[in-house]
Amino acid sequence: MHTAVGRFIFVYLGMILGGFPGLAMERTGVALLGALVLIVTGEVAPDQAWDAVDVPTIGLLFGLMVVSAQFRLGGFYAFAARRVAAVSFSPPMLLAVLLAVVAGLSAVLTNDIICLAMTPLLVEGCARRNLNPVPLLLGLACAANIGSAATMLGNPMATG
Fold first, then answer.
1. pLDDT in tens, 32-50
2. Which end of the chain, N or C, is more open, meaning fewer C-beta atoms within 10 Å of its C-beta?
3. Number of other CB atoms surrounding residue 64 within 10 Å
4. Do 59 and 46 lie in a common domain?
5. Rounded-to-integer distance, Cα 47 and Cα 95, Å
6. CA-closest candidate to residue 8, choices 40, 33, 42
7. Which structural domain range is residue 42 located in?
8. What is the DSSP string of 7-64?
9. pTM exceeding 0.85
10. Is 93 contained in some domain?
11. Sign of torsion, CA 8 10 16 22?
């Protein structure tokens, strides 16, 4: 039992750090490695591990990621970010429009890809308008989390 707690702490430390120095893996790899170690050591039976997976949820997440990736490749996020950045509103109103757009997209799609796709375009738009991008980037991150928390799946981890 104590070894399982130690492995749990090790995996969560890796997830907090985003990986371990010297290992070519990120949070997902650390979590998968931790699960594999539990199965290999016999602390969790393969049947128990499989029963712990909610296949419909994994399928829904996978489908949303595929759709979201296609939107990114098709230029939808670039279009949305450039449209928001090009609106000739005052900075506070621009922030409000950004929050609404990002929260709406995050409620329908995956917030991580929305943040990754829109951030550089938002910074570019702020540079063209001589605006400080920090408040808008903070708004982007917060709105993405709020929007994704409003979904059926929720938001188990913060995006930043």
1. 888 888 899 888 899 998 8
2. N
3. 16
4. no
5. 49
6. 33
7. 2-51
8. HHHHHHHHHHHTS-TTSS--HHHHHHHHHHHHHHTTSS-HHHHHHT--HHHHHHHHHH
9. no
10. yes
11. negative
How many Cα neighbours within 13 Å face the side chain of 45?
3
Residue 36 tokens, joined: 């594999």
Name the most confidently modeled range: 83-92, 98-107, 119-128, 134-143: 134-143
Together in a domain, 127 and 81:
yes
Structure tokens at 103: 């929260």
Judge if 140 and 65 occupy the same domain: yes
In the chain, what percentage of residues exceed pLDDT 90? 9
**pLDDT of 29 over the 80 cut:** yes
In this predicted model, what pLDDT tens digit does every residue of 78-100 receive, in sequence order? 788 778 777 788 888 888 888 89
Residues near 84 by beta carbon (within 8 Å), at least 6 away in sequence: 94, 97, 98, 101, 122, 125
Same domain for 96 and 145: yes
Q: How many domains does the chain have?
A: 2
Q: Is residue 69 domain-shared with residue 141, that is, in the same domain?
A: yes
Q: Are residues 75 and 97 in the same domain?
A: yes
pLDDT at 137: 92
Cβ burial, residue 109 (10 Å; 0-12/13-18/19+): buried
Looking at the fold, whether 22 and 98 belong to one and the same domain comes out as no
pLDDT (tens digit per residue) in 13-27:
888 887 877 878 888
